[in-house]
Write a structure and sequence with these properties.
Helices cover about 20% and strands about 20% of the residues. It is built from two helices and five strands; from the N terminus they run H-E-E-E-E-E-H.
């Protein structure tokens, strides 16, 4: 991405990931129009999914639970709020660092297993 921060778009997501991907352990891109106006920034668009019926594309449930990468706070969205899974090469360095922080406690609980980044 350029120096001027732009919103993440569909082009930054893995192809067909909105319709086909299981979201558990993936970094997702939240559609900007679904965010409250004061949270419409590229940093607020990145969300690490950790569970919920909405993570499975074939489930009737819609809720996806996880953490915002910008500050680590927990949140919930419906599957339709996401553009898809972010491409590995589009994930900014600050987000990689935060992802490592968020996944470190999870890795310890799972005996060294890590969450998937894409």
């Amino acid at each position: 991405m350029s120096d001027k921060q732009e919103f993440f778009e569909l082009k930054h997501c893995v192809e067909n990931s909105r319709a086909e991907a299981n979201y558990v352990g993936k970094v997702l891109v939240i559609a900007p129009h679904t965010l409250a106006e004061n949270y419409r920034t590229p940093e607020d668009q990145l969300f690490l999914a950790v569970g919920g019926f909405g993570c499975n594309p074939s489930s009737l449930g819609r809720k996806v639970m996880g953490n915002y990468l910008n500050d680590g706070t927990q949140g919930t969205h419906v599957r339709q709020d996401f553009l898809g899974v972010i491409k590995e090469e589009c994930l900014p360095e600050w987000a990689r660092e935060k992802l490592n922080e968020l996944c470190a406690p999870q890795e310890e609980q799972n005996g060294g297993m890590s969450m998937q980044q894409n």
